């Protein structure tokens, strides 16, 4: 009888820890969505786009970085306000920018930016081919 109770307690503990792990993992997942979906969503999402006109400005009162992204597939534009820290050094040269945040009051409020610069990796493929004897 005591052995069955211990097994039952162990199963309950495993289920509780499994639920806690799944719950925290699902809250940390931030899906990539299009601009239209981001506008309709109440949760934190990731959007990706091109920097419009290579231009951004920093609000002198709040320190927020303001810029516009262009979604290539739809030609849709989205205003972004980034408040997660200083502007990345290679921001204007970025091939694509990923903004992570929420759409509120007509603007995408980003707490995190990822800057994608392919120029950083140009030439690396050719160097690898030399090692292969190509």
Can you count the helices? 3
Quaternary structure state of the chains depicted: single chain
Radius of gyration: 22 Å
Give the CA-CA distance, first to last residue. 71 Å
Average of the residue pLDDT scores? 84
> Largest sheet, described in full?
5 strands, mixed, barrel
Describe the structure.
The chain has 134 residues and is of the alpha+beta class. Strands 1-2-3-5-4 form a five-stranded mixed beta barrel. The longest helix is centred in the first third of the chain and has 27 residues.
Keywords:
134 residues; OB fold (Dihydrolipoamide Acetyltransferase, E2P); 31% helix; 3 helices; 2 domains; alpha+beta
Short recap of the structure:
It is built from three helices and five strands; from the N terminus they run ααβββββα. With 134 residues, it is α+β, with helices and mostly antiparallel strands.
């Amino acid at each position: 009888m005591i052995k069955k109770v211990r097994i039952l307690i162990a199963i309950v503990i495993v289920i509780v820890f499994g639920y806690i792990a799944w719950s925290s993992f699902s809250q940390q997942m931030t899906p990539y969505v299009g601009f239209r979906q981001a506008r309709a969503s109440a949760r934190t999402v990731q959007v990706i786009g091109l920097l419009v006109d290579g231009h951004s400005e920093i609000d002198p009162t709040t320190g927020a970085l303001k810029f516009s992204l262009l979604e290539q597939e739809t030609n849709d534009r989205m205003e972004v306000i980034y408040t997660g820290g200083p502007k990345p050094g290679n921001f204007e040269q970025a091939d694509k920018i990923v903004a992570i945040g929420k759409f509120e009051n007509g603007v995408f409020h980003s707490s995190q930016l990822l800057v994608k610069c392919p120029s950083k990796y140009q030439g690396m493929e050719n160097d690898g081919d030399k090692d292969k004897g190509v």
